[in-house]
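PROTEIN DESIGN WORKSHEET
SECTION A - STRUCTURE
LENGTH: 485
TOKENS:
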């Protein structure tokens, strides 16, 4: 069996997981980092985060001016009626060729208004122009138009509503991603220590079986000598079979815990059946203690707890939505204005003739006869905001209870681990004395079996407390946003 100490990050990145009977040294922090990098759900969410970010960039760029151009050529040949003949020097028909070109820039301003600056030029040939001493007429027009809403569509918040809503959605998504990541870390911690406890229990069963089989040899010799009864011999053999059966169950649980880790890492199980995790980290020292009080944990959690922050971001988004819907109910009342200069020449020229300036200024007003749909949308948005406020209030209360529960669980689990460790030392000393006594005939095989089983059950409780201890601290650190930094 090969042994590799490259660390879990290097192992996965190098892709050598498919080596048979490969033992890998695994540290918890390395496993956490690799899980975040490889987990399929988080990979999907990171891609989605980039999509939302790009969408926000698109909405933010609405103030970038747009350039546009239009070109048309028109050729016509029409007969003149009597009135047209008189006005067109008795021509029987009228011929005209026209080229129209428009170049311009248009855009938005943050008050909700829009602007358009255009240069329009056309050159015309016609039957009438032929009567003069030039062939074409050139018309150049510079035009600036402005439209500014005063009610519906007015204001920076309304103009940037789509951008603000996308940014709010991005904040919600980021908080949800953070929650998923912290939940994933919590699962990794749970599976790591569960596997740690199972492997230690596996070792205890294997050692117990070895010692029991050695004791069985002694018992069989005593039975042949007539010093012990058949019942005692059968009881010892039955105990060994029971331990082997329990060992099979522990081995199955180890495979299940290992496969849970592989699933989180997005690694196929069928190609890694013989993979063995050698867990480097050991349970934290019982001398370790919390560095914050219960109240301090709660105050920090209010600022960092993902579920609470998600609800606050949703409230912010709904507030933006309400502003937008409220504005959409307003009547359309806009200022419209334009300034135009026109220049007519018999040759191509692009200047401005200040003698010919035209302008207009006015208002446009419109109001829907029925805006019940918008009012219903506003009412729903306000109800949704009330729901979120109820959720936030509930989360604040739940948060304190949850922090208090985990804080108490941490302290109790810590005390339990200390007591279980002390008790385990005493029970192992007692088992050692009973085995010595059994060897010299002072203790029965039943006493040995009972003490061995008592120690195995004691170890189950010990590692259950260790898991509770580790997870309680992880939950507290998660709530204040300090879990693995």
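SECTION B - SEQUENCE
RESIDUE ASSIGNMENT:
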């Amino acid at each position: 069996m090969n042994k590799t100490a490259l660390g879990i990050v290097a192992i996965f990145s190098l892709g050598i997981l498919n080596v048979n009977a490969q033992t890998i040294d695994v540290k918890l922090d390395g496993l956490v980092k690799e899980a975040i990098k490889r987990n399929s759900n988080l990979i999907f969410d990171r891609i989605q985060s980039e999509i939302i970010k790009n969408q926000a960039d698109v909405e933010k760029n609405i103030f970038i001016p747009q350039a546009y151009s239009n070109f048309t050529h028109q050729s016509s040949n029409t007969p003149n009626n009597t009135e047209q003949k008189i006005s067109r020097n008795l021509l029987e028909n009228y011929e005209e060729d026209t080229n129209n070109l428009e170049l311009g820039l248009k855009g938005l301003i943050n008050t909700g208004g829009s602007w358009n600056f255009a240069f329009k030029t056309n050159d015309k040939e016609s039957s009438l122009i032929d009567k003069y001493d030039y062939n074409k007429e050139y018309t150049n027009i510079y035009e600036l138009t402005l439209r500014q809403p005063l009610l519906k569509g007015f204001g920076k918040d309304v103009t940037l509503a789509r951008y603000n809503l996308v940014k709010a959605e991005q904040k919600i998504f980021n908080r949800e991603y953070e929650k998923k990541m912290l939940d994933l870390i919590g699962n990794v911690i749970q599976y790591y220590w569960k596997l740690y406890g199972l492997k230690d229990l596996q070792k205890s069963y294997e050692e117990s079986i070895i010692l029991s089989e050695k004791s069985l040899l002694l018992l069989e010799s005593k039975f042949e000598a007539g010093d012990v009864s058949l019942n005692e011999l059968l009881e010892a053999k039955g105990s060994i079979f029971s331990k082997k059966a329990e060992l099979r169950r522990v081995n199955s649980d180890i495979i299940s815990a290992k496969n849970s880790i592989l699933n989180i890492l997005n690694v196929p199980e069928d190609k890694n059946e013989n993979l063995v995790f050698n867990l480097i980290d050991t349970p934290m020292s019982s001398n370790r203690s919390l560095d914050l009080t219960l109240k301090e944990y709660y105050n920090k959690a209010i600022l960092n707890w993902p579920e609470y922050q998600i609800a606050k971001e949703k409230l912010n988004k709904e507030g933006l939505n309400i502003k937008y819907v409220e504005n959409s109910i307003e009547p359309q009342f806009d200022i419209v204005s334009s300034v135009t200069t026109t220049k007519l020449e018999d040759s191509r020229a692009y200047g401005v003739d200040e003698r010919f300036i035209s302008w207009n200024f006015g208002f446009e007003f419109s109001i829907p006869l029925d805006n019940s749909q918008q009012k219903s949308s506003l009412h729903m948005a306000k109800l949704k905001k009330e729901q979120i406020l109820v959720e936030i209030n509930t989360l604040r209360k739940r948060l304190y209870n949850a922090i208090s529960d985990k804080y108490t669980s941490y302290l109790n689990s810590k005390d339990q681990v200390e007591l279980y460790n002390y008790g385990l030392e005493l029970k192992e000393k007692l088992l050692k004395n009973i085995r010595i006594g059994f060897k010299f005939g002072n203790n029965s095989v039943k006493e040995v079996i009972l003490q061995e089983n008592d120690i195995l059950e004691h170890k189950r409780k010990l590692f259950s407390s260790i898991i509770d201890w580790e997870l309680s601290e992880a939950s507290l650190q998660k709530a204040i946003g300090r879990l693995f930094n």
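SECTION C - NOTES
Strands lie at 3-4, 23-26, 66-79, 93-108, 114-126, 137-149, 276-279, 332-345, 357-366.
The longest strand covers residues 93-108.
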